[in-house]
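# nightly structure sweep
# worker-07 picked up a monomer target from the shared queue
# config: single-sequence mode, recycle default, output format = structure tokens
# input follows
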Amino acid sequence: MSVPVPTSAPGPRRRLLILAICCTSLLIVSLDATVLNVALPSIRRELGTSVTGLQWIIDAYTLVLASLLVLAGSTADRIGRRKVFLTGLALFTLGSALCSLAPDLPLLVVFRMVQAVGGSMLNPVAMSIITNTFTDPRERARAIGAWGGVVGISMAAGPVVGGLLVGTVGWRSVFWLNIPVGLVALLLTWRYVPESRAPKPRRPDPVGQVLVIALLGSVTYAIIEAPSQGAAVLPLAGVAVAALAGLLLYEPRRAEPLIDLRFFRSAPFSGATVIAVSAFAALSGFLFLNTLYLQGTRGLSPLDAGLYMLPMAGLTFVCAPLSGRLVGARGPRLPLIVAGATMAASGLLFAAFAAESSTPLLFTAYVLFGLGFGTVNAPITNTAVSGMPRAQAGVAAAIASTSRQTGSTLGVAVIGSVLAAGTSATAPASTFLAASRPAWWIITACGLAVLAVGAATSGEWARETARRTAERLERTGARVVARSGS
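# output follows
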């Protein structure tokens, strides 16, 4: 027996319930990432893997996620957001159960990819549901701020919960967390979330999808394997260039491309894309380095390592909803400038002042990074979806999510490769610290990129480009609908 799907606009209570249900998808995805980072040293010991193996545990997930997010968003707009969201929850929950049973590294990587297929159907689709549920711009900004606050909750709870589980039960238990939350979210979505879709379904774009996978896959593999394979990865650079050229030449010729390059005529949207890549590259690199440092070099237990990172997580939790309110009241410019400056300052404390050598300096760097990352998420999401036609909300949100996951993938790939090039499994602590110094300069550069691009793409000129882009997209959409109805 099927549950009737409401067709009228949801009231205030129903909207809040829908927001809470959508936030559970972000919670399990974000919690999975933060908890897993704490478990990496334990996985390394039990499965006997190297830094490269740890990179693949993280990047196999983010790579598949980034490759499929746009497809998931456009598919949800076409066949129904509720339907795709339910499928994603089921696959993510199943993938989590399989990961907890993985006997070796190759199968763990494969099961992480199953997780990622489900995960690709969650956050962009949930954001599209939120965008179509909260139509008032101020209300939407507050909803997105609450959405961003869930990242803070996962960052605050993840290291501690993960450390406790790893230290008492073992690393496999970190995947168990997703199973009850996923099942509850499935039941609530089935019962309460209304179905919605775009007025004009978009046709699939298999060529564009293959080109996206080829581009991201070749770049990620080349970066991760470069320290061990050297020049043997150079042909992959040619694959990446060819895939990028193919996207730039092929996508504009399609009436309904997988990635609508016209979105990037909007300076705020383009800026949000660059900022998302930079911010999430910095975050993933930050977590990767600190997890290995705290447990490997300082010799802390998983729980103590999680507690050490609470200042960063706590600031992210506090600042995310405040940033959402600030974006709704004053726009994205101030939050982006604050985020870029504080993330760059945090990286600089490690890169130039050896923050690891002083506990007060270490905690200062954690506080600064938490402040920056907590502030950056709301303006990214709000800028990406604001001004875009509601019919294409899923695609716009998916591109923003793809930028985040691409940043996470590149962050772990680049930072891990820099670290792997200068350390070995038997390297002393001093070697780890020396090898991590270039990585911290990369994180500092990411923060400066957030600052510079945020300042450049949040002024009056940038807003005008967004307005013109939205008008062009609306006119094109109206012509397509008119032709299809004639």
